[in-house]
Predict the structure.
Amino acid sequence: MGRPLLLLRLEAPLQSWGLRSRWDVRDSGDEPSKSAVIGMLGCALGYPTGDARLEDMEQVLTMGVREEHPGVRMTDFQTVTGAHPTAEGRLRGSDDDPDTIVSPRAYLQDAAFMVVLAGPATVLEECRDALLAPRWPVYLGRKSCPPVRPVLECLTDKYETVREALERHPWEWSGCPDPQPPYPANLRTVEEDEAGVAIRADRIRTNPARMYGARSVRPDWVDFPGAAPEGVSPCS
């Protein structure tokens, strides 16, 4: 028996995981950000934006991500007119402002990810239960990006570490073509690691400006673990 791990499946026609989104330009990372995943769990739990419990949860959970399917990057050009809130909580412009702001917004099309979270069993169990009956709708980075399948994969103790789950848990992507898909030889992973060589500015910090802290991650690859047999739960 290993340690408790919460496994999530993030799939949607569009996902967006902003890392440096400010003002008009809204970017997206190549994989789910930790702040967005914690925010998604906060939606399920009923925690409002700025709730200190989100920061508490982020601090006790560690995260790994495996890219089941990379998807295709796209940019949508949206327009904004009139008064709208800024990052500091004030209003910019006025209701009769004739100027139109063009806001480019990046998305990942048809991407699929497996997220593995480790931490106290009580916190993971609470998150599992909330995903089974969410207080508010969950979405993948932005409210316009609802998931196409249940986010919860399972709460399991089959694996000793996040890394082992990333290496061994069966691959799955609901958008995989039939009958014989060209399975990838390996899968990209990004695992939270204090000795990691890459930085992600996506640690939740409770402050009025909604500024985020940095964390170290280790980008890597794992061998393709094999797909789950048809009709068999990958968590069984």
